[in-house]
Amino acid sequence: MFHLGIDLGGTNIVAGIVNEKYEIVAKASCKTAVPRPEAEICDSMAALCKEVVKKAGIKMADIKEIGIGVPGAINPATGVVEYSANLFFHNWDLGEMMSERLDKRILIENDANAAAYGEFLAGSAKGATNSITITLGTGVGAGIIIDGKIYSGSNYAGAEMGHMVIVMDGRECNCGRRGCWETYASATGLINMTKEAILGERADSSYMLKALDGDISKVNGITAFDAMRNGDATGAAVVEKYIKYLGCGIVNAINIFQPDILSIGGGISHEGETLLAPLRAYVERERYTKHNDKQTVICAATLGNDAGIIGAAMLRPVKK
Ligand SMILES: [Zn+2]
Asked: The domain 2-120+306-313: what is its CATH number?
């Protein structure tokens, strides 16, 4: 038995065939190229499905259902994408439009939830009963698995941990609030913090500015980490501050959910123990359950972009 999962992203669409061991046996991708009409995106996805089935050497009849991970507020019960800021769509009947094209049952899920489910089934959170996977990117994506199932609340819009406030009246967030976790703990948050630190230094003696050839717009998620590795005190201070912000939200999540495993994905997670060791130390100091024998394991996510494909491929229908 094979499964087909699609990760519909703002930049790329990737389809994959997944076997019973949760391994991707074939992949195909194309550019999302938004903005363009919903029907065209469905045509592209349907073409990718046919291509990937062929690549895997199987037949469409071998696939029972197709799962799609979509950024934004989606309704898995109706198959409707209610709102997707990245894809510029409101009330898109994605399930219906795709089943018309492929004559299959279509299951949809929020992309961060699908990625968390993939990590739970086959990656960093394998073997857990309850897990959380967060992704540090433009924002902070999060997915919560409780008793082996995706938890997204009564209206499927839950698990938006990136929008919990950790600094009252803090940085402005796209959601309209101030001080949301993602404005500090995302890659964007780290980049902003790094730029501010550089602007606070004397230009002629800033290590980071020199490393960027004087061009502050070149700051990325590893600028401060690299500076720290090279003995720069400003870079080290940025990393320390960033880890505190990241850790603050993680402690909040652990205090509420007490997952077996909390895994972290996204480019910054490639820092590995440079990020994780001080993060664990922070969480150990701050967590409510200091005296419990069993504690949440904090680790890096392992599947990268494949998590969303595997999670989408393995989605189960939800009750209406
Ligand atoms: Zn927010």
From this structure: 3.30.420.40
